Amino acid sequence: MIVIYICIFFLGVAIASYINATIYRIEKKVKYPEILTRSSQCEKCKKKLTWYELIPVFGYIIIGGKCTKCKEKISLYYPLSEAFLGISFLLFYIFQVPYYIWIVHILLFILSYYDVLYRAVPRSLVHILIVLSVPIFIFINFNIPSLIITASILLLLFILTLFLKKSFGLGDMLVLLALGLILPYKGYITMFWISIFSALLYAILVAIIKKKNMKKVKIPMIPFFTLAFLIASLWGEIIFNSIFSKILL
What we know:
249 residues, mainly alpha
């Protein structure tokens, strides 16, 4: 059983590493077929990475987060995101989460990459997420409370956006719409509030560390939606019944 767990974890980190590398090459305008065959290298000194440097998560630790030749720092996002998807896959496997949750989670992972590094998400990927969410809702998660709660939250965010400029982007609200169709309403409420509280905590920490006004802290919301989606997919109803139901009632 432990061997299976290790394999599932490394499947997740390997997929994350491949996604990160592929998106990076796409953004750098690398053409096909080089985008699939090109050897990974340091973008500053062009040194080709050795086999142990390419090991997801552990390669970063081995080289101390720096290129072994020019000492250029490697973004901490890469090992953290790889470990996150590996842990996500492992938890999904242990708790026997439905297959469509895995797919949605991978899409959110990709959107998080863009949101963290570029503060914007591709429309095409958001549209794919929405298109995927509709049959999931119709055939798996159809219930009126989910529609009402999703519509209510989106309406509230729209009103807040009118008064608080740039509080939520259109991409954020479209992702929330899709997740409202995918998750049961208890899980969705749990996901929404966990994402809000975790993003607020992030903003407070960044403001303290960088000595900035919280209003000037830019928050990429998709990563927090992704983290909250993971938690809600596993324990959404339990958290709702034990915490949020008491607060709301």
